[in-house]
Amino acid sequence: MRNSPNRIVATVFGAVYLLVGLLGFAVTGGVGFLATEGGMLLGIFQVNPAHDVAHLLIGAALLIAGLMTAAASKIVNTVVGGAYLLLGIVGFFLTGTAANILALNTADHFLHLASAIVLLGVGLGAERPARVATA
Q1: Cβ partners under 8 Å of residue 67, min gap 6
Q2: Angle between helices 5-27 and 49-67 (to 10 degrees)
Q3: Is 107 domain-assigned?
Q4: Is 0.85 topped by the overall pTM?
Q5: What angle do CA 102, 124, 9 make, to 5 degrees?
Q6: Among 14, 73, 122, 131, which residue's CB has the most CB atoms within a 10 Å radius?
Q7: Do residues 135 and 72 lie in contact, with contact meaning Cβ atoms separated by under 8 Å?
Q8: Per the structure, how many domains does the chain have?
Q9: Position 65 pLDDT exceeds 70
């Protein structure tokens, strides 16, 4: 399905996350790869080079899936959405600790949770197999 909701969301999110990953490197000069505090992207999202690389990898996975099939997009949207849900929740507990190797801040947590809602919503809710009615 060319106009599949999963393909559209994966393609759009993939392109956005690739762009965010690239832009992140513009604000992380001099920041350690796994520094617990990083540069500020768009003035509110904290990133370090590891966070930028994560955005590039996630963006690439989403974009490639979005350009492939609805089934591939559905799987990647669901997996990435689940990972973002976990990161969004766990991130609140990591901020301010040595375990915050992605330099996450509160704005990041809410963005990850919002991404999770959209990706999981589409991944789990769109392109469901048709049910066969039985009498």
Answers
A1: 7, 11
A2: 160
A3: yes
A4: yes
A5: 65
A6: 73
A7: no
A8: 1
A9: yes
Structural domain range at position 33: 5-125
Within 42-94, strands assigned E span 45-47
Task: For residue 28, count CB atoms less than 10 angstroms from its CB and return exposed for 0-12, middle for 13-18, buried for 19 or more.
Answer: buried
Q: Does 130 fall in a domain? A: no
User: Distance between CA 11 and CA 21 in Å, rounded?
Assistant: 15
Q: Decide: 89 and 108 in contact? Cβ < 8 Å.
A: no
What kind and span of H or E run contains 39? strand 39-41
Residues 24-48 pLDDT 10s? 999 998 999 999 999 999 999 999 9
Query: How far apart, in whole angstroms, are the C-alpha atoms of residue 110 and residue 112?
Result: 5
Residue 131 maps to a domain: no
Backbone angles phi, psi at 19, to 5 degrees: -60, -45
Tokens of 28: 């992380």
pLDDT, tens only, 66-84: 999 999 999 999 999 999 9
Distance CA 6, CA 64 (A): 12
Per-residue model confidence (pLDDT) at position 129 = 65
Neighbours of 7 (CB within 10 A): 25
